[in-house]
Amino acid sequence: MREIVIIGAGIHRFGRFDDESYIQIGQEAARKALQDAGVAWKDIQSAYVSTQYLPSTVGPKILKPFGATGIPIMDMESACASGGSTLRQGMLSIASGAIDIALVLGVEKMPRGYMDPLQIYYPWQVDMGLSTNPSYWAMRARRHMHEYGTTEEHIAKIAFKNHKNSVHNPNAMYRKEFSMEQIQTSKLVCDPIRLLEICAPNEGAAAVVICAREAAQKYTSNPPITIAACVHTLAGYSADFRCPVDSLSAKVNNPGPTEVTSKKAYEMAGIGPQDVDCFEVQDTDAFCELEIYEQLGLCPFGEAGRLIDEGVTEIDGKHPVNMSGGLISKGEPVGASHLGQVYELVTQLRGNAGPRQVPNVRTALGQVLGASGNCAVTILKK
Amino acid sequence: MDRLSNAVPVGEGLLTTPLSPAENVRINGSRCSECGEVMLGSYKSCANCGGESMQQIPLGKRGKVWTYTVIRHQPPGQYRGPKDPFVPFAEGLVELPEGIRVVSALDCDLEKVHIGMEVELVVYELYQNEQGQPVMAFKFKAV
Ligand SMILES: [Zn+2]
After folding, report:
1. Residues A181 and A274 occupy one common structural domain
2. Are residues A63 and A97 in the same domain?
3. In which domain, by residue range, is A80 found?
4. What is the residue-averaged pLDDT of chain B?
5. Is the ipTM of this complex over 0.95?
6. Which residues does chain B have within 8 Å of residue A123's beta carbon, measured at their own beta carbons?
7. Could you read off the pLDDT of B26-49 as tens digits, one per residue?
């Protein structure tokens, strides 16, 4: 298979932008990625656009104004993993030899307040009041606490770390440090999950220009960053309990989607979790990040609390996680969130992350997970 | 006249029929004849093994809370429970004898809800639809 590299990356800050349309937001990220690569739009042979909450033909609306070159521009959606599945499609088209270079863009402008639960739940679940997304995170957290002795303090520590990291990320929505006390006394959303421990839906965009390694020199003078793996899977039977699941098997205990997806990605990249220098992961809520430590193989099951206690996942720890501040600080513009992670990892691999820079990053991993057990893991290498 | 005689279930295939008397109604499950897995509601194929021989079974009435949380704010969308004022309730996964855990509202003291709590099925009228029919839903009550 042809090796595929990232030669340019761009972002539109995540947040709320009342005076910008999704077209403007998406164009800014796409332009920046093209400029970063030094590639002209007319050289792009195909474009893949990830979005979940926007209307139809979002990609063409954003990109055709750059020049109606006639290339295929496709919208794609896989819930919170949309950016991963979209990047993978772009890679497959290059790997097949059909094209040499593609633009992959994630963009989102989500409605304010609660999202319409009928987007993911059955009407009867909504009628019965079983449509509060954070309640599913809370129920997973409660079970983990019961089985492994994980505490509310462990969960709060994740939020503390991510808010602290966000201060140095100009692309985050919230850039404010909070004390442990502020976090642990913030409003209870669903026991045991609190307001300062969850992410907010919002707006933003991120984009990369990818090409075949052998073609990279033709297009750019940037040192190419290898996409060592990009895997998208859906959770196996009863393997993932999160909204909008209505039941779970009590007999079958299949491995969770992040475990399955990261295993495949490590294998594809020829590495293990210990070889990864930094991570960006799906902290929809602070507990979720704890659970992901275990599923990514950073520690045995049940020991994630110890990992955060020992500072292993701090920027100066052995396995830094969410240097960007994570979704808790950036917000989650669903279609853009994985490409936002990739943007952060490219910045880290280039050594351009300023005060949040992890020293000597050579290998970096991004992970997203959402509705229907959609999961994506991307591994980048310098 | 039995006012539940024209009742409908909140979700198609979710409850056994007839819907009256309510205390005889159970949650509907589908058991795979090939692998034995049980799913909530009515299915024609098995998501575990792909088998196409599914048998409808009524799920047991008694279960234990496997995990829980408390819903303190009115859920988004067309919530049909009490809204004015909203009454906070516990939500949990209830493990039933058939080997399935079902997401459900829990009718119990919010201070006393815990993992392992014994609960029993209650089928009740959630609301009346536009045709004036009682719409039947389920929850589990602490015993
Ligand atoms: Zn089966």
Report:
1. yes
2. yes
3. 4-113+203-226
4. 96
5. yes
6. 11, 78
7. 999 999 999 999 999 999 999 999
